[in-house]
């Protein structure tokens, strides 16, 4: 594996937290009213938007991008605040057994990919 050219902390300007509640298992999708994004395809933000068409968890985004989970949380949080992404609710007390099983499966796949 080729080492990254950019240190992870430079992607977040050294920040380690986000302004939004963003659990690592939370599914993230593109906001219906997202502003036009004019970033080049290789830009990390553009890559996140492409990934979010499938509503991955924050952990899955980190794995696909090859960045630490904390970095992915900050980048995703920035895109949520800017109106590009929407965080979907994780399961509540009324969730069915199938919904819980699906969440566990998705979470395990994301963690394995890390």
UniProtKB/TrEMBL annotation:
Pfam families: DUF742 (PF05331). It comes from the Bacteria. PANTHER family: DUF742 DOMAIN-CONTAINING PROTEIN. This is DUF742 domain-containing protein. It comes from Mycolicibacterium parafortuitum (Mycobacterium parafortuitum). The lineage of its organism: Bacteria, Bacillati, Actinomycetota, Actinomycetes, Mycobacteriales.
């Amino acid at each position: 594996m080729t080492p990254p050219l950019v240190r992870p902390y430079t992607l977040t300007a050294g920040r380690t937290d986000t302004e939004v509640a963003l659990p690592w298992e939370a599914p993230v999708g593109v906001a219906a009213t997202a502003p036009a994004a004019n970033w080049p395809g290789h830009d990390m933000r553009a890559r996140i938007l492409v990934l979010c068409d499938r509503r991955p968890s924050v952990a899955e985004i980190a794995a696909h991008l090859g960045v630490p989970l904390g970095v992915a949380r900050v980048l995703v949080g920035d895109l949520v605040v800017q109106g590009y992404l929407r965080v979907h609710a994780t399961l509540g007390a009324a969730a069915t057994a199938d919904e819980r099983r699906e969440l566990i499966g998705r979470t395990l796949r994301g963690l394995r990919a890390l």
